[in-house]
Amino acid sequence: MLNLDTEDWNELYVGCAGGGGWVFNARYDTAPPEPEQGCWTLELKGLAGGHSGIEIHHQLGNAIKLLAECLAEVEGLQLAAISAGVAHNVIPREGSVTFSCPAAQAGALAQRLPALQQRWRSYLPAADHGLSLTLTEASVQPLLQSGDSAHILQLLTAFPHGAQAYNLVQPADLVDLSVNLACVRLQRGALEIEASYRYFNAEQALPLRAGVESLARLAQLDIRRIDGYPGWQPDFASPLLARGKALHQRLFGSEPAVKAIHAGLECGILKSKKAELDILSFGPTIRGAHSPTERLRIDTVPPFWHYLSALLAEL
């Protein structure tokens, strides 16, 4: 079987990650703000975002985690609304939180924003250096109690995100296990959190799953597991791989890189149904998958097509 869903030309893939996820829900009491209370919206934009599999090891900023960090020191904060993230397989690149707090605390937060941005730029990759924080007055909305608000922010701070384990054979470029804190919605007391995880070895994912679900139970969230998809265990002894490498050498005068990808491909599902399949995956170069900047390197399409046609002719 030939799969055309990987994203770097001159690379042949012989394995992909499996994955699964969760949706967590909770409901909290709300009340109108006191007459003297104001509301503000803190908005974060300008992160790179990207694919939660193939870009998770780039240590890109997560808008949910950064917003929670911003608000952790605001005393007397009461949440009204949160909106961040777009899909389970996308690193969240922007988000907003609407809240109430004493005016002095809002003023102190506004003064801290430049220092927070400078701190993040000191360690986030260059792709995230366009991030911006803005604090504006917002319309009055029903508010959660301060205790419940602190509870949610602490949960988002503690929730794991990013690469959790690297492959011991290819430690520089292959993540074995990861988790993506993907989406948070809070509206009129209803909270929903969506997250996903990826793995090559399903057994290795069990402690991560148990840890995340334990955290959710401690936070008194309802848990709904999202049906996962199986991985495709790397097969570096594949006969199809040997033919593919030899053909690449003949056509282009160079040996392709051989890799596995920390993302879900159709291969894992099909391999689980038809175990005897010998599979090879390759494709033209794509950048920024699952983001507004997704793009194709057009000059990689002709050699990709030439290679695919020649390989089909041999099989």
Number of strands: 19
CATH class of the largest domain: Alpha Beta
The value of Rg in angstroms is 23 Å
Mean pLDDT over the residues: 94
What fold name goes in the CATH topology slot of the largest domain?
Alpha-Beta Plaits
Q: What kind of sheet is the major sheet?
A: 9 strands, antiparallel
Structure report:
The structure is a single chain. With about 325 residues, the protein is α+β, with helices and mostly antiparallel strands. It folds into two domains: about 90 residues, Zn peptidases (Aminopeptidase), CATH 3.40.630.10; about 210 residues, Alpha-Beta Plaits (2-Layer Sandwich), CATH 3.30.70. The strands form six sheets. Strands 3, 5, 7, 9, 10, 12, 13, 14 and 15 form a nine-stranded antiparallel sheet that branches. The radius of gyration is 23 Å and the shape is elongated. The termini are close together.
Gist of the model:
The chain has 315 residues and is of the alpha+beta class.
Which tags fit this structure?
315 residues; Aminopeptidase; Alpha-Beta Plaits; two-stranded parallel sheet; 2 domains; alpha+beta; elongated
Provide the fold topology:
Elements lengths: L1 E2 L7 E6 L1 E10 L2 E2 L6 E8 L4 E2 L11 H9 L6 E7 L5 E2 L3 E7 L1 H19 L10 E7 L4 E2 L1 H13 L3 E5 L8 E13 L2 E10 L2 H17 L3 E8 L9 H14 L4 E5 L4 H8 L6 E2 L4 E2 L7 E2 L4 H14 L1
Parallel strand pairs: 1-17, 2-16
Antiparallel strand pairs: 3-14, 3-15, 4-11, 5-9, 5-10, 6-8, 7-9, 7-13, 12-13, 13-14, 18-19
